[in-house]
Amino acid sequence: MKLSWHGQSCVKIVTDSGHHILIDPFITGNDKSDLNADTVEADVIILTHAHDDHIGDTEPIAKRTGALIIANVEIAAFFAAKGLKTHGMQMGGKHLFDFGEIKMTPAIHGSSYEIDGKPFTLGLAAGILFTADEHTIYHAGDTALFSDMKLIGAYKPIDIAFLPIGDNYTMGPDDAKIAASFVNAKKVVPVHYNTFPLIEQDGKAFCESLPGEQGKHLEIGEMIELM
Ligand code: NI
Ligand code: MN
C-alpha cells in the first residue's frame, strides 16, 4: 500500500490491488494542495465529516470518476440525492469492501455544511480505521483528544496514524502527542496544519517530540510505502 499526504487532511492511498482511495479531498481553495481536482484518480472517496475543508472537491471528483463515497449516513444521503454512488456508515460500524475494511471511529468535532448559504449539520464527525494489504491506517479526522483513542489502538495494531495538530479547531501538538501514545501507532504523521495562518504549526518539531522513530514528517505530496 502506498500513502501520501496532500495538505490539510487529504490522504491518498493506493492499495496493492490498484484501488485509488482519497480521504477528505480538499483541493480547490487549498493553496497547499498539489493535486488537481480535474485529473486526480479516485475509485473511492472517504469523508471524515462535512466541513468544507474535508468534503472539498468530492462532488466533481465523484461525478467525473464514478468513485464510491463512503461517509456517515447523513453525508451519504446528501450525495446520494445528487445521484452519486454512496455507502453510509456510522461510528462503531465496520464493513469489508473489495478494496479493504473500513471501521468508523468516534471523533469530537462538528459536521456542518453550507447549502445555499445556510449551515446544515450532516451527522457526526468521525475517524477512519482502514485495513488493506495487512496494514491498518488510522485517520483521526478533526478531533479533540479523547481517552477512548486507547480503544482504537487496542482494536488493531496501527501502522500509521494521521493526527491533526493545527490547534484551534482540533488537537494542537501537545494533545496530539498524547493521542499518539494512546493510539500506539508505529508511525504518526501530523496533518491539518499550515493550510492557513490560524493553524500554523511546526510539523517537524512535533515529530521530533514523539518517542524514537514514531514521528514521520511528510512533505505535501511525499509518498510512503508499507511493504
Ligand atoms: Ni472540521
Ligand atoms: Mn478541518
Commentary on this structure:
With 227 residues, the protein is of the alpha/beta class. The chain has one domain: Metallo-beta-lactamase, Chain A (4-Layer Sandwich). The protein is 20% helix and 30% strand. The chain has helices at residues 52-55, 58-65, 73-80, 149-155, 173-183, 203-209; strands at residues 2-5, 11-14, 20-23, 44-46, 68-72, 86-89, 94-97, 100-106, 112-115, 118-121, 126-132, 135-139, 160-164, 187-191, 223-225. The longest helix has 11 residues, at 173-183. Nickel (II) ion binds at residues 49, 51, 54, 109, 142, 169.
How would the blueprint of this fold be written?
Blueprint: E1 2-5, E2 11-14, E3 20-23, E4 44-46, H1 52-55, H2 58-65, E5 68-72, H3 73-80, E6 86-89, E7 94-97, E8 100-106, E9 112-115, E10 118-121, E11 126-132, E12 135-139, H4 149-155, E13 160-164, H5 173-183, E14 187-191, H6 203-209, E15 223-225
Parallel strand pairs: 3-4, 4-5, 5-6, 12-13, 13-14
Antiparallel strand pairs: 1-2, 1-15, 2-3, 7-8, 8-11, 9-10, 11-12
Bound molecules: nickel (II) ion and manganese (II) ion.
Briefly summarize what is shown.
This protein has 227 residues and is α/β, with parallel strands linked by helices. It has a single domain (2-225), classed as Ribonuclease Z/Hydroxyacylglutathione hydrolase-like (Metallo-beta-lactamase, Chain A), CATH 3.60.15.10.
